[in-house]
Write a structure and sequence with these properties.
alpha/beta
């Protein structure tokens, strides 16, 4: 059972999250209340994070906890900063039920979760900064023809919808191919996939 704790300086926002989250939630009123929490997910809005030190985040994560930071206006700079502190998720404070619960499930399985716009920007940033050109043909040698096409589109920061449109295949087919690509390349998600090109 996933344990969720909510921390925000906006009570309306907490009320909204409680309605959208498919799991039992607990409200935390101050940082001191988090010291004894273990094996849980903390959902916190970014305005509260300015009061949280990187050391506190590190200590909280050491207790087998994960953190999802939600921002009123998500941006790549904040995403990178929070990820560098060890935060496992970053999204929009007003994101939909499906995104919010997807983030919780993804984080609870020890993966990183980012809203699609930030993921796309981060992928472009990673692949554009790559100084050494990796041999795509060698990297993709175990992929099928369709998987190679999708892998190249993924590398170029295409979203699942963009890939679906480009190759005229369904979203579910795209997801299945991506799953197989990740398995064959021994990566967990788009960030670890993108990191293959920055080595």
């Amino acid at each position: 059972m996933i344990k969720i704790y909510l921390l925000s300086d906006d009570l309306v926002l907490i009320g909204r999250w409680m309605k959208l989250i498919n799991y039992e939630t607990n409200i935390v009123e101050n940082l001191e209340d988090l010291q004894d929490i273990m094996n849980s997910i903390l959902i916190v809005n970014s305005s509260v994070c300015k009061d949280i030190s990187p050391k506190f985040i590190n200590d909280f994560i050491k207790n087998a906890n994960q953190i999802l930071v939600l921002d009123n206006t998500p941006n790549l700079i904040n995403a990178k900063r929070f990820l560098s502190f060890g935060v496992q998720g970053y999204g929009n404070t007003l994101m939909t039920t499906s995104y919010l619960n997807s983030a919780i499930e993804t984080i609870s399985n020890d993966y990183i979760w980012l809203i699609p716009q930030i993921t796309t920007q981060l992928l472009k940033d990673i692949t554009n900064k790559s100084d050494s050109k990796i041999d795509e043909e060698k990297l993709f040698q175990n992929l099928t023809k369709t998987e190679k096409k999708i892998a190249i589109l993924l590398k170029n920061a295409y979203t699942n919808i963009n890939i679906s449109d480009e190759l005229n295949i369904s979203i579910n087919t795209v997801k299945t191919h991506i799953k197989h690509i990740y398995e064959k390349l021994n990566v967990k998600d788009r960030l670890s996939f993108a990191s293959l090109f920055s080595k």
